[in-house]
Amino acid sequence: MNEKVIKLLNEQINKELYSAYLYMDMAIFYDALDLDGYANYYTIQAQEERDHALLFMKYMQNNGLKVTLDAIAKPDKVYATVLDPLVAAAEHERYVTALINAIYHEAHENKDYRTMKFLDWFVDEQMEEEDNADSMINRYNLFGQDPKGLYLLDQEYATRVYTAPSLAL
Ligand code: FEO
């Protein structure tokens, strides 16, 4: 396998773990506001990001590649309003999409069809992640500034349950 593809795959493990950290930090922010539903949503989001990291790790291992874990950066965003993490999450998911696309591009350049096929799941997943993040912003803007509306949104996000990723390696 091409060295640059390997490096990007390994780096993506760290990026996904950072995503988990970022979403845990958002869950902490909402927990402090007693918005337990939003906190639940981002706690589960963090679990999903850890799953993404494990999928990259497993893919590398299945291909006999050495995995190296690096330090996870500190989530350093400061949130002041209920809306702030929602906007940060949407921005972050677009950044992750760009990272996935960059690995895909490199795999394509190197005719690494196996890695492209592996990444297809993440390409679809990123569309869903961006859509969900945008929807949370839109729904907050529509309903969330009214206390009753915010209460109902929070109740709804409290119902989110963890499901394991549909991709199995
Ligand atoms: Fe691992 Fe939210 O993308």
Description:
It is a single chain. The chain is mainly α. The chain has one domain: Ferritin (Up-down Bundle). Helices cover 75% and strands 0% of the residues. The two termini are 18 Å apart. The chain binds MU-OXO-diiron. The site of MU-OXO-diiron has 7 residues, from helix 1, helix 2 and helix 3.
Question: What is this structure, in a nutshell?
Answer:
75% of the residues lie in helices and 0% in strands. With 169 residues, the chain is mainly α. The radius of gyration is 17 Å and the shape is elongated.
Element order, helices and strands? HHHHH
Report the sheet with the most strands, covering strand number, pairing sense and barrel closure: none
Number of helices: 5
Q: What is the CATH class?
A: Mainly Alpha
Query: For the CA atoms, what is the radius of gyration?
Result: 17 Å
Q: Indicate the low-confidence ranges by residue numbers.
A: none
Which structural class do the helices and strands define? mainly alpha
Question: How many independent structural domains?
Answer: 1
Small molecules held by this entry? MU-OXO-diiron
Please identify which CATH superfamily we are dealing with: Ferritin, core subunit, four-helix bundle
